[in-house]
Each structure stands twice: as structure tokens, then as C-alpha cells.
Design a protein that fits this description.
The chain has 409 residues and is α+β, with helices and mostly antiparallel strands. It has a single domain (13-408), classed as Orthogonal Bundle (Cytochrome p450). It is built from 17 helices and 12 strands. A 5-stranded mixed β-sheet has the order 1-2-10-7-3, with helices on one face. A 3-stranded antiparallel β-sheet has the order 4-12-11. It has a two-stranded antiparallel ribbon with strand order 5-6. A hairpin with a 2-residue loop joins strand 8 and strand 9 (311-313). Helix 7 packs parallel to helix 17 (362-379) and helix 13 (235-266) crosses helix 14 (268-276). The chain is globular. The structure holds protoporphyrin IX containing FE (HEM).
Amino acid sequence: MNASQPPSPGRAADDLASYHPMSPAVQEDPYPIYRHLRAYEPVKYIADLNGYAVSRNVDVRAVLLNHALFSSDPLIQLAFGEGNPAPEAQYMIAADPPDHTRLRTLVNKAFSRRMLETQRPQIVRIVDALLDEAAERQAFDFVECIASPLPVNIIGQIMGIETSMRATFRRWSNNVTAGGNAGTLTDEQRAAIHADRDDFRQYFLERIAAVRRRPGDDLISALVAAEEGGDQLTADEVLALCVLLLIGGNETTTSLLSNALVALRDFPEQERLVRGNRALVPRLTEETLRHNSPIQVLFRRATSDTEIAGVRIPENSIVLPIFGSANRDEAVFERPDVLDVERPDLRHHVAFGWGIHMCVGRALALLEGELAINHLFDRFDRIEITQPEIHWCDAFYLRSPKELRVLCR
Ligand code: HEM
């Protein structure tokens, strides 16, 4: 695509040119707008955020790789605001080296492939139990019955959290992230956020103290025990990691599972292909992540004056790498709007990020996606989305259906 091409049909040029990550038009269907940005304004200034949105794959990767020039430090304040249960702690996702290196080294020791393998039988049981319940109903909301509880129950299991607490976690997680919408909160919402934030903090500090006295084989015990050269995580650092693992992995995986069903509805020949060759299920999971990325956009801060694609970025500006656009970039992906599990260029997607902050939960998310899709295919010959229109969730950084009414046979 080049600058002389006309804008996509179906939307007025003005509409396409007015990208804002929080606008309803972007929430409804961001992809024509991203296409327009990549072609005409690959680095777009957004005045009220004092931010520069970066939409081409090559520039998004460059931003994610250059952590010295593009710091992650604004991430937590922008995402959690007053909902932050560990305001004193350094969050790994918002840390730059050397702090990030230290935290990531310790986390990698606890959240390892071996831990995942050990937990695999329990993970399979959780997926099975949710599908058993759903199969009895046939018609249900896929988000509420499967996509949302599945990752919460699994991370709850891995962290050693009582089953009875898992619904409470969903509420706590929602309220922690709702704290990021500071400008639009009512007094009542603010009070609920503060209460849940404080309960979240207290619950985990108590758990951390308990596993210090009596360690188990769960992830919190592993984080408390992780040690490198005599260095260990403090209680507040473990708390911040619990927040990240609970929140970072839940909405994103819910989105992956729901988006997979939407993709299969829109590309039925891909469903036939994958049902006929189950070895393609892992590729379907990754291709769904590329095609409709759960995390659409995040933040960085420019640490000094710089330039991206010829546009000057002053020191301290916010930079917004648009993952959802980088993954549809026609310069990298052939027919980027088409779901194609056999595409040769799949490895260039950035749905899990790139560089030092590349997702810690990648292997777990892929396992959850594969297990869920395989078990759905095993149980149901047909999965039909029965609602006429899909409404996408309000969180601006996330692309996930609010509900997904299905009929399964
Ligand atoms: C489909 C599901 C998922 C998607 C699309 C996803 C996406 C991402 C992305 C894009 C980043 C990079 C953030 C950045 O560069 O600023 C990231 C980092 C992270 N993710 Fe995920 N994630 C998923 C699942 C999970 C799960 C299951 C967990 C844990 C249970 C998790 C925990 C984390 C953590 C802790 C980080 C921070 C890593 C660091 O700063 O070094 N994620 N994820």
C-alpha cells in the first residue's frame, strides 16, 4: 500500500483519519483505521494523550526493542491508576533494566516450563469440567461460561488459590483495571475500586506470609522461594507479580478464546481444515492472536528527543505501539485481513510483545488455547454463534467480545 491509494471503502476519510485508541469507532472495528494510519500517518500525534501512535510492524518492533529510548515506566499508572494494590512496588512490566532483568530472572525461575508440565493434568481437568457443564446446556454465552472462567480457574489453580475465591478474583481484577479510567469514575465506582484494591492487597500479603511459613507446590511459594545469587523478591514484589499474573493473563486469554470462535465463524474453511488436521490447532491459536490481537495497544515513554519514521518525538512524550496494527501490516503479512493457519509469515506477529517484556505467560496462554480448541472440536461438531452482532468490550487496550451467544451440537 502507498500514500496515493484511496482510503478503504465503507468509511469516510475523516473517520479513518481521526484515530484515538479510546474512540468508539476504533472499538467497533479498528482495522480500516489502522490500514489508513499505516498508509498515510504511520506515526500519529494524539494531542490529549501527548502521545504518538505507531502503527507499522517495523516501527512497533523498533519501539519494543529499544527499551533505553522507550521506557515502560508509564504502564502501571496508566493501566491501574488508583486501583493499584501495590503502589510501592516496582512492577516487572513497567520496569526497565537493570530492575527488569532482576525481576524477570527471578520470575523465570518460578514460572517455568517444568512448573507448567507439572500442572498440565489439573489444567486439562479444569478445561474438561467447564466443557462438561456447557455441554449440558448447548446454548450459552461462551464468554461467561468458558472463555472468562477458564484462565481464572487455571491461574487460580497454579497459584494455589481456593476455588471459592475465584469469582471474587474476577471482581477484584476488574476493579483494579477500572482504576485506570480515572477521568470517568463516579464516587461510587471509586469507593468500590478502593475497597477491592485494599482487599486484594490484604489477601495476597496474608497468603505470601502463610507460604513463607509453610511452602506448597504452587506458584506463590515458588516466587517466594526464587533466589538468584542470594537475591530474593520482597513481599511487595511478590504481591505486584501476583497482580500482574492474575490480571495480565485473564482478560487476554478470554479474548484469545472468544476471538478464535469469531474467526472460525468468519473463515469456515479454516475450521474444516483444522478439524481435519488437528496438528494445525497450535497454528490456529497463534493465527487468531495475530488476526485479532487481544492487546491492541500499550504505552511507552520517550526518554530523550528522538524520531520514528521521520517524525520528531520530544523527550517524555507517550509512545503507543499498536500491536493490533503491526499484526495486520501488509508489508509483513500477505493478505493480512485473512485468517490463514498455514501462512508462512506467522512468526512475525507481536501479539505477545517483542524484546525484553515478551509475555511471561506465552506458553501457558498457548496451552490454554490449544486445549480449549481441541476439547471444543472433540465435543461439538458444530459451534454456531447465534447473536447477530458482536459488541466489543470497553477497555481500550483490549479486543474481546462482551458476550458470545453460541449453540453447540
Ligand atoms: C493470549 C494471552 C496473552 C496475551 C495476548 C498477552 C500479551 C502480552 C504482551 C503484549 C506483553 C508485553 C507487554 C509490553 O511489552 O509492555 C505481555 C507481557 C506479560 N504477560 Fe502476557 N499475554 C497473554 C497471557 C498471559 C498470561 C497467561 C500470563 C500469566 C499468567 C501473562 C503475564 C504477563 C506478564 C507478567 C508480562 C510482563 C513481562 C515482562 O514485563 O517482562 N500473560 N503479555
